[in-house]
Amino acid sequence: MNPLVLLLVVFFVMIALRVNIGFALVLSSAVVILQQDLPLISVVNQMFAGVDSFTLLAVPFFMLLGRILNAGSITSRLLEVADATVGHVRGGLGHVNVFVSMVFASLSGSAAADTASVGSILIPAMKQAGYPAPFAAALTAASSTLGVIIPPSIILIVYGAFGNVSIGALFVGGVVPGLLVAFFMMAYTYVLAVRYGYPANPFPGFPKMGRVLFRGAAPLMIPVVVLGGIVGGIFTPTEGAIAAVLWALFLSIGIYRDVPLKALPKILSDAVVDFAIPMFTVAGAGIFGWLIAYLGAAQMVVDFILGVTQTPFLIMLMLIGFLLLVGMVLNPISATLIFLPIIQALGDTAGVNPVHMGIISTITLSVGLITPPYGICLLIASQIAGASLGRCMLAAAPICLLTVFVAILSLWIPDIVLGLPKLLVPELFPGG
Description:
Elements: H1 3-16, H2 21-35, H3 41-51, H4 58-71, H5 74-86, H6 92-108, H7 111-128, H8 133-144, H9 146-149, H10 154-163, H11 167-173, H12 175-196, H13 206-231, H14 237-255, H15 264-294, H16 297-308, H17 312-327, H18 332-350, H19 354-366, H20 376-385, H21 389-412, H22 415-424
Helix pairs in contact: 1-2, 2-15, 3-15, 4-14, 4-15, 5-6, 5-13, 6-7, 6-8, 6-12, 7-8, 7-20, 8-20, 8-21, 10-18, 11-22, 12-21, 13-14, 15-18, 16-18, 17-18, 17-19, 17-21, 18-19, 19-21
């Protein structure tokens, strides 16, 4: 059997049998290595190479940051800011849901954490206010995917580390598309609110709004410090993540005093577990991705697509379609690592800037977080809402289409992604 076919067949059979994705990556790779009579030490070497990256250390610190935010009052403060800012618009709680997810995304970069923390508060509140449970779950799950796009995104860190792309430029490039996705979600919520009479919260008044914004100002400084420091060259993404954790700890323990010192060991141990599982997947994807490149899969895909079309825009549309299918069965980190050689080969063939390519693929893969059978965010939200996954998926379908539309729009108008990076890090774009 063709080794590439064998690799993919064994991998997807294991996924169908619900084998842990990290083990599926390693075992399917080992089968092909044995078939090709390659040294088994290659498995260990490539797995180690996959995780031997200083930049990847930013990931556990951002996961720890998410734990700290949820342990104290920071998340509730962000909810108050969102409510005071957009809660009085028609469909208020829906807008609050999107807004707080957008802000939370700029703090932790974790979609699943956002779904669990924000959803546990807002989904019951939306149901009580008259929103259908499937819509409440769908909106919560969809808005949580903003954590994949808006910096500091863990997926963008992985893409930059393994694709040799500036993480600072990727972070800046994700800002406008992320805001666009949030805007379309709010616009869709507003349309439904007008059609079905969803309520708005009372306007709190400017004095109260000022007090709420003051209470939330310190946590809102975290993304400013992280993004500004990385783009300004003050520190690396890993150092930025550490700075964010230290600031959150200072606020939670020293200022707000709502996280006792005795809670820290539990927070740290949970963060270690959170990191260990995806890191094993990263290691497994290291050997799997190496085999994908070694067996020439990237060139095969490029040759196939060029046989269909040589128009750059159509090449990219075919890649978006491919990534939508991949995202249905793989989490974005695994999909990025496994298919990075193909993504970058097609991007080079179409003449797409590496930063632009990274944002387009990330937006597209984010849809997989709310589409079955993977759809971890929609699964979490549906369980909180007590609604069937099928009905939640139907409610999420229009929002998925809006996210794909933003990906295509960003492809059609490159400056949606590249405008800010060109302005803030012009040295990376010598050709203008």
